[in-house]
């Protein structure tokens, strides 16, 4: 996975496979335009320190990692259906993967 320094760049790269996201923090949905505006603001107001970087999953989830990829905290999850051939090597059969993750993990907090 590529280490990405800005959220704007992460959103641009992730938008190749995902057009809508769900915030893992509060469950709000955002499309491409909203994500670009959020990314612009976050990059200006809360830039990452030198030990952190953005990561993108094959499904288009966006996370923040601290030094190592396995320490990634996923902050934006895909909020749309994926055909099985959209991402090579994956087989996503359940619709709305991000919504499923939110309902089954984050909503129970």
How does this model look, in words?
This protein is α+β, with helices and mostly antiparallel strands and 109 residues long. 29% of the residues lie in helices and 26% in strands. The protein is built from three helices and five strands. The chain has a five-stranded antiparallel β-sheet. A hairpin with a 5-residue loop joins β3 (52-56) and β4. α1 (7-14) packs antiparallel against α2 (32-45). The radius of gyration is 13 Å and the shape is globular.
Provide the succession of SSEs: HEEHEEEH
Percentage of residues in DSSP E strands: 25-35%
The percent of residues in helical segments reads 25-40%
Main sheet record: 5 strands, antiparallel
Domain count, please report it: 1
Mean pLDDT: 78
Instruction: Compute the separation of the termini in Å.
Output: 29 Å
- Using DSSP, what is the number of strands? 5
Number of helices, where a helix is a run of at least 4 consecutive DSSP H or I residues: 3
Strand adjacency order, main sheet: 2-1-5-4-3
Shape: globular
What Rg do the Cα atoms give? 13 Å
Structural class of the helices, strands and pairings?
alpha+beta
* Spans of at least 5 consecutive residues with low confidence: 82-98, 104-109
SSE layout and pairing:
Layout: H1 7-14, E1 20-23, E2 29-31, H2 32-45, E3 52-56, E4 62-66, E5 68-78, H3 97-106
Antiparallel strand pairs: 1-2, 1-5, 3-4, 4-5
Helix pairs in contact: 1-2
